[in-house]
Every structure is written in C-alpha cells, then in structure tokens.
C-alpha cells in the first residue's frame, strides 16, 4: 500500500518541531520531505520540494513546483518557496496524494491555473483559478481526468485554452471570461477529438487534425466560427496527411513556422510532411520524405524543433525490464530531394531542452548535464549533478537543474551555481551545539537552514568535515541527539490502523494536559472489509479471500494485436507493480518480442491456450486430449521464445468452462483462473447490429470496475484493439490509456495489487 509515513521527529527548547514525510511517487520511487512546525504559532512550513513537475514562469522569473505535497511557487529570485493559495497543499490542511498527481496547469503568464477537481474516480469539474483574486470558476463539469497528459492546453499568449470533454474539444476565451460574457459550452465547441488532436503554434494559432485534414485556427476566429459551426468549418485547411488520425494512438508536432508536420502514427511510425492544402497537382521534382520506424516498446517522449529546421527526438521504452532511451535527429533546414533520420550515439538520456536562442541543447544523464552546441551536437560544458531529472533554461547562459536531491541555478560559462532548494531531506534535526535546523540529504550531505533568507546553506568543510559515508554517520556528526520533549510539549508517533498515513504525529501539551494531532488527519478512509467471506470453487479460482487482505489482481489477456502493451508495461513499471498476463499461442507467434518484454519485466504469465476460439461452440467437439495438447503447445511456444516456463495458471478463450475443460487442465496441474470483475474493455464500439449495447467509454468503464471490485477481486483487461480484424472494429478510447486512473483509485482505497498466484496463496 502506498501510505505516507512520518519519521525523524524532534523538538527543541524553543518548541520548534521538525519531521520528515516519506511518500511513494510513480516514476520517482519513494522520497522524503522535511517540515517545520511551530505549535505555539500554529504554523506548518515545508522545507524541501521534490520537483515531480517543474515549470518556469518567464514573466515573473519564478518557478512553479508540483508534487504530492501540493503546489508551490518561488519568489522572483527563485527563493522563498510558498504554497499556492487554494491549491490544497499539505501544509494548508490538504492530504498527501497517492499515485500520480492531478496536474494543475498554469497559464504561460502565471496568472491563472486550470485543473480538474475530482468529483468521482474518473471525472471531475474543470476549474479556473485566478491567482490575483483567488476566485475559482467552474468552467465545465463531468470532464474526464487524465494523469498522463494535460487536461488543458494554454495558448502561448495565455488568452485561450482548449480542453477535452466526451469526444469533443472546446475552447475558453480569458477575455470573455473576464468580461462575464462567456458563451455556453455548446457554442465553444471546436470539433470532435481528444487533446492529441490539437497543438498550439508559436504564433498563437491552433492546429487541429480531424480525419486526414489539418486546420489552422486563429484566436479571432474562435468566436465567429464556433457560433456558426453548423455552416462554417472551424479554421482554415493548411494541409493533409495520408492517414486518418486516431487520437488514441497518434500524435503530431508542428514546425515553428507552421510549414511542416511531424506525425507519430500508432506510437512507432514517425513521418514528416510538408503542409500544403493543394496536393492535387504538383510541379518540380519528387521529394523523398523521411520516415522513422520505432520498436514497439518505444514511444516519443520529447521533441525539440529549432526555427532553423533541425528536429531532435528522445524516445523512451522498456527493454529487458529497464528504461531504455534513444535519440534521433532530422535536418530539414535546406531544400533537398531526400531527408532521413539519423541516430545519435548518446545513451541513458533522461531529458533534452533547447536554449532560448536555439544554439544549445541541455542533455540530462543520470549523473550530469551536458550542454551541446545545436545542431552540431558537440559538448561545450559538462555539469556534474547528483541524479538530475530535468533542466529549464532561464536565459541562454543560465539554467536550472532539477534533481532528486537538490535543485540549483547554474551558469556554466561563469562557473557559478546556487542551490535554490533541497529536493529531498532524508533526516532532519538540530545542530549539536545549539545551531538551528539542520538536514541531511540522501547522500549524507549536511545543510543548515537560514530562516531569514529561506534558503539552505551547505556546511563547509571546516565545520562539517568530509561527506559522511552513511546517513547514520552523518547524523552522529551533524545532528544533536533526538529530543522529543520540551518544557511545553511532548511529541510522538502513533501508528494508524488504516488510512493514507501509516502513522500520525501527536502533540501533547504538558501544561494543559491535552493531546492533538500536529496536523489534520486524512479525511479519506480505506474501504471496509465485507462482513463475511464468500465461498470459492475448488475448480475455478475466481477471487481471493474477501476478509483477509485488502488486495486484488490485475489480469491482462493478450489475444491478437499488441496495441497498448507498451502503455501497460510502462504504467505498471511506474507504479512498481506486477500484473498477471495470459498469453494466447497465436499472440506469441505473432509478437515474440512482446512476449520476451513481458517476461523480462517480471510479470506473472499464464496460458490462454494455443489457439483462440469459442470452445462452447457446438460445431466443435472438445476432448481432454485436445485441451492437453493445446496447453502443452503453448508451453513449448513460450519456452522457445523466452527460455522460461509458463506459470501453471490458465483460462480458456472467453473464459469458457465445462467439466472436460476443467478436468484436462487439472490433469496437467493447471489452476483455472476466472474473474469476478470483467472490465468490458474488449467490447468494440460497433458489432454486426450497429453500436454495441455493451459498449461504454473508458472513463465509465473505470467507474464500473471500481464500483464492483472487492478484496480478493480479479480484474480482467484486454491488450490490443478489440475488433481489430474488422473494418468497423476498435473503440473511441481504450482502457489501457486510463490504467493510471484505475490504479490511483485502487491505491487510494487501500488496496495492494498482487499477481494471481499471491492471491491464491493468501486465500489458503
């Protein structure tokens, strides 16, 4: 369970209380944050800020930091970090978030924040917060939550933003909002699509793809064209692509001058096209356009595109269970008859960023940041940094390096740097000779807090000595012995039986003889266990114990296509969870690389038989020998691909059962695994009769699954596109793209996600 835990609790004679809080963060693992409380003044202050999300606000020369403890902004010199009012930060009485955090998206001018305030597991109200007046306005209700992509995309000038609701895109004008003449939502509709259908250009124009057409929409056109949307197409056609755009799998980027489009088709096919609205006739020579074919386990993570016409792509994926990255570059700065992508040799790149003058690229590695000339890609400066995560250029000569330990402002040419804030505090306390608040980083480095300047100062070598070999040694050298009592108060940790926090910090007032929590306890409670267990079939394991543990299993059935598998594997890796995959023989023969990747990622793998058909069909005679041969063939196929053995777990296609099927599996020591929660994500939108009566959008499937889950549940999901073999197959959206929403809600309810075999063991 992803519970927060408090530790390193101390109090001094001045009644200052310091402590740390550890929390799990998908993609970042577990990190620790430091706090200072002054009970006599009833204040709580945060002393470190892990940069889960980091944004530079150029107008105010400040930073916005978001993590599971809240939303914060620095002053104009990047110091004095404070929580944003009405943002629900922990030190303002909010709760520490579990799982991925709901994004709070600031306008480029820093004056507004748009976010979706959850009202149910998969939906919420889109809220616009004016930071000058602190006024919140609900812009739209029942908007789908999205933890992977921004739910709002601001225009560069902060005068518009676009959001997604249902299967439509809408805009909002800040001018109309300020003048209280905002149109009703139906008149602000741009067209069908999702957030991947749109992208803002540098000139404040919006590019929108629908079908195979690329539209350009100017801000002044929003009002007129949306008002007469029944008669006028929104925007001007500026180009076409040779495919129909699928927002569930496709993405695009526009060149700075708006003349070219980079299209990511299906997550692995990368094309560059020159935008022109008249492609019926052409003159001149034929141009060979560039194409890049990515492995299925890779996805484009970042794109930098200079005004001169040089593109660099950073791709990320999972290879042999670990994150793998690659860089590719494409130069379209000069007209020529052919263009091609070139691979760069850099390995282990975490992120890339282009400088304001576009002549330097910051490249982040695990232990350093390199500044490379762009586009020549020659290293100009190497900056050592402990575990950097990302960079932000402040000017062409200054950049911020945000890491898991410290975040600093660096001027490589001048050879200067300044620590802006600590990203983590592993342990906290007070100086051994009466000094103020001191902290230790995860590497044992010691720091002292300057309350006047609101900054951390590294302890120099004369005072601090060399870096300690361990946290225990550093604590002994730099921190006073733990003290939990003063003349006025005593503090202690109290374990919690259930809830988001594993323990609570309690404050006992010696004078008034009263004990209270140091901060607000979480309002969110874990789900209660049922009153009694439910019977289980000895032949079909459909669920685990309902009363022993708050745990469940996620089962992924791989039948034919491989779409969505990379998303599933990446999401499970981000959360550090193991799923159970059932693989069909036909899937394994079609996608051996995918099978190896599932196995290398450490997931449990069972059998979905060698061929996929309905065993209940009266046209077929199913015998025990046939079942045994199919299971054995699947074992051999899996071993040939991976060199490993399948788990002795299986279920038949479509979860069909009868005495013959069950008896044959038992004879081969297989446990038949059923399910008690069918997600219905395998239902395509259309069937032979038209719109399927079982079809629901993915957000509604999330809510349905969560309403039916119980302790011990087995939740079944589908890999791939259902109905992919039919022209009218597929869905408007896919549940695997909302797997993080599902996992967040499961974890918030107090559940652990375990493989089916663990569920079986714990039910014994």
From TrEMBL:
Transmembrane residue ranges: none
One Pfam family per UniProt: Polysacc_deac_1
InterPro entries the UniProt entry points to: Glyco_hydro/deAcase_b/a-brl (IPR011330), NODB_dom (IPR002509), Polysacc_deacetylase_ArnD (IPR050248)
Domain NodB homology span(s) in chain numbering: 550-754
CDD domains given in the database record: CE4_NodB_like_6s_7s
One GO molecular-function entry: hydrolase activity, acting on carbon-nitrogen (but not peptide) bonds
BP GO annotations: carbohydrate metabolic process
Name of the molecule in the record: NodB homology domain-containing protein
């Amino acid at each position: 369970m992803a519970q927060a835990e408090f530790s390193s609790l101390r109090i001094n004679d001045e009644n200052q209380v310091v402590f740390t809080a550890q929390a799990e963060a998908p993609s970042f693992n577990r990190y620790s944050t430091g706090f200072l409380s002054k009970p006599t003044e009833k204040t709580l202050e945060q002393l470190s800020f892990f940069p889960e999300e980091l944004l530079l606000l150029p107008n105010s020369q400040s930073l916005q930091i978001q993590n599971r403890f809240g939303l914060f902004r620095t002053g104009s010199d990047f110091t004095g970090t404070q929580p944003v009012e009405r943002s629900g930060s922990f030190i303002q009485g909010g709760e520490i978030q579990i799982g991925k955090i709901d994004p709070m998206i600031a306008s480029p001018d820093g004056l507004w924040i748009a976010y979706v305030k959850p009202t149910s597991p998969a939906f919420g109200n889109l809220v616009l917060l004016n930071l000058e007046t602190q006024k919140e306005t609900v812009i739209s209700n029942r908007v789908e939550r999205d933890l992977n992509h921004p739910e709002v995309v601001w225009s560069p000038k902060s005068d518009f933003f676009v959001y997604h609701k249902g299967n439509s895109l809408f805009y909002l004008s800040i001018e109309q909002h300020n003048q209280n003449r905002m149109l009703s939502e139906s008149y602000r509709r741009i067209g069908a699509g999702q957030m991947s259908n749109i992208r803002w250009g540098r000139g404040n124009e919006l590019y929108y793809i629908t079908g195979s057409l690329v539209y350009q929409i100017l801000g002044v056109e929003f009002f007129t064209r949306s008002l007469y949307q029944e008669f006028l197409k929104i925007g001007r056609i500026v180009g076409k692509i040779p495919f129909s755009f699928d927002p569930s799998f496709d993405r695009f980027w526009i060149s700075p001058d708006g003349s070219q489009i980079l299209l990511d088709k299906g997550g692995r096919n990368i094309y560059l096209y020159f935008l022109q609205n008249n492609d019926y006739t052409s003159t001149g020579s034929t141009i060979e356009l560039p194409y890049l074919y990515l492995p299925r386990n890779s996805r484009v993570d970042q794109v930098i595109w200079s005004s001169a016409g040089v593109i660099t792509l950073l791709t990320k994926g999972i290879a042999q269970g670990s994150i793998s990255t690659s860089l590719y570059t494409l130069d379209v700065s000069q007209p020529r008859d052919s263009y091609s992508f070139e691979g760069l040799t850099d390995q282990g790149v975490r992120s890339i960023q282009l400088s304001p003058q576009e002549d330097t690229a910051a490249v982040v590695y695990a232990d350093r940041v390199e500044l490379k000339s762009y586009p020549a890609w020659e290293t100009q400066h190497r900056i050592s940094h402990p575990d950097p995560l990302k960079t932000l250029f402040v000017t062409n000569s200054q950049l911020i390096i945000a890491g898991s330990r410290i975040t600093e402002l660096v001027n490589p040419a001048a050879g200067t740097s300044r620590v802006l804030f600590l990203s983590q505090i592993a342990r906290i306390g007070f100086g051994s000779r009466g000094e103020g608040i001191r902290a230790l980083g995860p590497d044992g480095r010691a720091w002292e807090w300057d309350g006047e300047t609101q900054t951390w100062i590294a302890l120099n070598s004369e005072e601090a000595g060399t870096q300690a070999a361990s946290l225990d040694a550093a604590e002994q050298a730099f921190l006073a012995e733990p003290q939990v009592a003063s003349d006025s108060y005593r503090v202690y940790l109290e374990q919690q039986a259930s809830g988001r926090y594993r323990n609570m910090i309690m404050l006992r007032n010696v004078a008034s003889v009263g004990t209270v929590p140091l901060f607000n306890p979480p309002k969110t409670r874990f789900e209660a266990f049922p009153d009694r267990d439910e019977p289980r079939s000895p032949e079909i394991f459909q669920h685990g114990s309902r009363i022993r543990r708050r745990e469940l299993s996620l089962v992924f059935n791989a039948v034919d296509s491989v779409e969505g598998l990379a998303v599933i594997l990446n999401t499970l890796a981000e959360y550090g969870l193991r799923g159970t995959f059932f693989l069909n023989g036909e899937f394994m023969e079609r996608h051996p690389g995918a099978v190896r990747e599932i196995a290398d990622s450490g997931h449990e793998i069972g059998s979905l038989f060698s061929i996929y058909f309905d065993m209940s069909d009266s046209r077929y005679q199913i015998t025990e020998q046939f079942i045994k041969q199919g299971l054995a063939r699947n074992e051999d196929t899996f071993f040939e691909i991976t060199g490993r053995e399948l788990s002795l777990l299986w279920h038949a296609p479509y979860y069909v059962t009868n005495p013959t099927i069950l008896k044959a599996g038992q004879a081969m020591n297989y446990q038949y695994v059923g399910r008690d929660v069918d997600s219905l994500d395998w239902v395509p939108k259309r069937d032979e009769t038209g719109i399927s009566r079982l079809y629901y959008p993915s957000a509604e499937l999330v809510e349905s699954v969560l309403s039916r889950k119980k302790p011990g549940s087995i939740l079944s999901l589908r890999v791939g596109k259902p109905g992919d073999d039919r022209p009218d197959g597929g869905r408007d959206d896919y549940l695997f793209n909302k797997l993080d929403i599902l996992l967040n809600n499961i974890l918030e309810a107090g559940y652990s996600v375990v493989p089916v075999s663990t569920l079986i063991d714990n039910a014994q």
